[in-house]
């Protein structure tokens, strides 16, 4: 959470507790002065009488009370119990509904976010950001949302009750740090303001040069600027939307198939990737020798080499190397089998 929000809640809770404490001290002080004046007692005797009276300890009177003293003592009891009732109701509200509950919840959320590693940060909760959050949630990928509009956060919490979020401006380095940018694996920037996206990209890459940044560009002219700022990928929703509309009109069956493998429709078919680790038993072997389709059932449609080059529709004599990323189509079960095969767990 932003430091400002936590500080506000902390100060508000402290202020309410201080108000209750001051009320109690005031009752004790003025009651003690009143007893001293009415009964002509010493300050200590009067204070002792007031304390045992409002605390209901019931040790008995240390000196006989006059009628005026008894009336004043009754008034003390009524005022003290009114203060107790006010204090108890205020504390109960803070614990169960008010600022104390919110403060403890925000501190707990802040602690959970600080412990996250290799997670994804989503900046912005517009339509693009919401779609990204839905996909990450569906894939069970740990993520943190940064959004400065509290209403958008409240709205998404109605659907995703346990998401981790920060209410704040992602252009602020402090907010990125609180989201765990230094330990994050990915940063998805979806705000509609290209200038903000550029600034966030620069800040993120400065704080963590290893983080993969996927940024949105509303204007085509912003794409090269975002890439110069360090964005690994730049997406233009308008361009993608236009291409998709044309594709649906020209080749509807191809688009329907891609929807199945990219959006996880009713058919359990996925377009996935798996990276070959350094200690993988498949390193240095040919595709035909590893027998990926026969052992797992997936279809290998491409291989991305460690140098960034792609091999589309690799042939059986293609050699697999550590650092390669294999791109496949298959079911969830088949994909899990492939991961075990690549890591050597099934041997």
General description of the model:
The protein has a 6-stranded parallel β-sheet with strand order 3-2-1-4-5-6, with helices on both faces. It contains 14 helices and 10 strands. The two termini are 46 Å apart. It has helices at residues 3-39, 43-54, 67-96, 99-114, 127-138, 150-159, 173-178, 194-207, 222-229, 237-250, 252-263, 287-290, 292-296, 332-343, and strands at residues 120-123, 143-147, 164-167, 186-189, 212-216, 233-235, 270-275, 299-304, 310-312, 325-330. Helix 1 (3-39) packs across helix 2 and helix 3 packs parallel to helix 4 (99-114). With 347 residues, it is α/β, with parallel strands linked by helices. The longest helix is centred in the N-terminal third of the chain and has 37 residues, at 3-39.
